[in-house]
Specification:
Elements lengths: L4 E7 L3 E8 L5 E8 L3 E2 L5 E3 L1 H19 L6 E8 L5 E4 L9 E2 L10 H5 L4 H8 L6 H11 L11 E4 L1 H10 L6 H7 L2 E2 L4 E2 L2 H4 L17 E3 L2 H7 L6 E7 H9 L6 E6 L3 E7 L10 E5 L6 E6 L4 H11 L6 H11 L8 E3 L17 E3 L7 H19 L1 H5 L2 H4 L4 E5 L6 H11 L4 E4 L5 H5 L6 H4 L3 E3 L5 H25 L4 H4 L1
Parallel strand pairs: 1-6, 6-13, 14-20, 20-21
Antiparallel strand pairs: 1-2, 2-3, 4-5, 5-8, 7-9, 10-11, 12-13, 14-15, 15-17, 16-17, 18-19, 21-22
């Protein structure tokens, strides 16, 4: 008997994926993806046009519909996951976007954040969200208000939303947001699990100007506009919106009982579930209700990621279709850089010396004999060392934290790189390191959790650790990297706090 089909959508920072999955056996029936153009500029601009998102969603769903043929009529549910922290002002009645979508990594508003933070004593922000600073969305609101004509955007009848809310409204006609996005706006009390007015009042708004919270794995019926967009009958249940880290974690939840799911994408992010009392006190953690049961889900974000890697490949190898293959060939010749060469991969962090500038990345140990190949190797090592440093307390320190993790699951674009799998398998041993298949749409699958656990689960395979000599060299490299971080933290003082804590 033919099985139902489920449709998963993942709206990432730079790519959109739509996947069709068999509901009863979890078989991947088809995937369509598209790169989303990003308007960027040296001043920190990172924006997307919503018309591009709309067109890509229509185009990709159409491609899948043609691939599935008659089976498209068996689609029984839709799940949506999306990037968090983006900013759109929209008409609340129609869903029409009145601004471009400012991405989470648009740095233009961030200079306003210290003044907003100073409006409340420091312990207030920690009690609100486990974070030491306000959500960046409060600065985005203040920044939009200051633009010419910005006040007109904040009239009654408009709404401040992100990527997930925008697409969910397009599909269902309902405004809903996930806890991860609300945290990044800055209006979510993570301890009580609810939206609050007080932070929004600091920038002249209240809860009526943001979307209400998603409740668990609730669904809403596909509306008329969404039905026309997807060529599906109205009334089908639509789940979400999930922040893409929720989708990624739910897709990995079948791989082990307590996974650390590492998304090696635009930013490198780790997601895990633990008891509320075991939430780590160190690091930059977004804490939201576990989507997989009791406890808290912790989203820990690095100050590095694929943006760093793309820069390194472009600078050391070049651009074009063969660049990634050429980069991999460099690592096949030799995996690690010379021991004296250490890279700091923090290209997306504010400059630790000049806070008005962007980027804190660098290389230490360059000599007249340093080659571009070795600089590329060092930057890849630096990314992996930074990941090991950032997640050290989660993986190895403290009984309650250690009990929270029994395997590491790698997803995202960089997980397809042989060199990253080798380095991470060596650095994170003896924990098993598992890789999700290159074609697996992890977050899109995870968004189907409400309908079918089999449909949500991704296939994984083990990443064998490198030889003992390489593991030893990686351990020594991590020690040097930690020492460099200690030296920088002492020399730069408070300016390095955001990077090194």
């Amino acid at each position: 008997m033919p099985q139902d089909v489920l449709l998963g959508i993942d709206l990432g920072t730079t790519a959109l994926k739509v996947a069709a999955v068999g509901a009863s056996n979890g078989r991947l029936l088809g995937v369509a993806s598209a790169t989303l153009p990003v308007d960027s500029a040296p001043d920190g601009t990172r924006e997307q046009r919503l018309a591009d998102v709309d067109a890509a969603l229509a185009r990709l769903s159409g491609a899948l519909r043609r691939k599935l043929g008659k089976d498209w009529q068996r689609v029984a549910g839709v799940g949506l996951a999306a990037q968090g922290g983006s900013a759109i002002i929209a008409d609340a009645a129609t869903g029409e976007a009145l601004t471009p979508m400012q991405l989470w990594n648009d740095s233009r508003p961030l200079g306003l954040l210290p003044a907003i933070a100073a409006l409340k004593p420091a312990p207030y922000w920690r009690r609100l969200s486990y974070l030491s600073d306000p959500g960046a969305g409060l600065a985005r609101i203040a920044w939009l208000r200051r633009r010419r004509g910005g006040e007109r955007l904040f009239r009654k009848g408009n709404i401040y939303v992100g990527a997930g809310e925008y697409v969910y409204f397009k599909l269902t006609g309902q405004w809903r947001q996930d806890a991860g996005n609300a945290l990044q706006i800055g209006c979510y009390d993570a301890r009580r699990g609810e939206l609050v007015d007080e932070p929004l009042s600091l920038v002249g708004l209240d809860r009526s100007f943001v979307a209400p919270m998603r409740q668990g794995h609730q669904t809403h019926p596909l509306g008329a506009a969404g039905a026309r967009l997807l060529h599906l009958p109205p009334g089908l249940p639509v789940a979400g919106p999930y922040i893409d880290q929720e989708g990624g974690y739910l897709s990995a939840a079948a791989a082990s009982s307590r996974p650390l799911q590492l998304s090696l994408g635009t930013a490198w992010v780790g997601n895990f579930v633990c008891p509320h009392q075991a939430v780590p006190r160190d690091g930059f953690n977004l804490v939201l209700p576990s989507p997989a049961g009791s406890g808290a889900m912790v989203i820990r974000v690095m100050h590095a990621g694929a943006i760093t890697w793309d820069w390194a490949v472009r600078t050391c190898v070049g651009s074009g279709r063969g660049a990634m293959s050429a980069a991999e060939a460099i690592f096949r010749r030799r995996l690690l850089a010379p021991p004296a060469l250490t890279a700091m991969p923090w290209l997306t962090a504010p400059n630790a010396i000049d806070r008005a500038a962007a980027g804190s990345g660098g290389l230490v140990g360059i000599s007249p004999h340093t080659s571009s190949d070795d600089m590329l190797r060092a930057m890849a090592e630096g990314l992996c060392y930074e990941l090991a440093r950032v997640f050290e307390s989660v993986l190895w320190h403290g009984r309650s934290a250690r009990a929270a993790i029994d395997a590491v699951v790698l997803t995202g674009g960089a997980a397809n790189g042989w060199q990253f799998r080798q380095m991470l398998a060596g650095l994170l041993a003896p924990l098993p390191v598992l890789q999700v298949g290159a074609d697996e749409p992890a977050a899109a699958r995870g968004a189907l959790w409400a309908f079918s656990r089999k449909a949500a689960a991704v296939a994984v395979r083990p990443c064998p650790p490198p030889p003992v000599a390489v593991r030893r060299a990686l351990g020594e490299g991590l020690h040097r990297y930690r020492r460099l971080c200690e030296v920088l933290s002492k020399g730069l003082g408070p300016a390095a706090a955001d990077l090194l804590t």
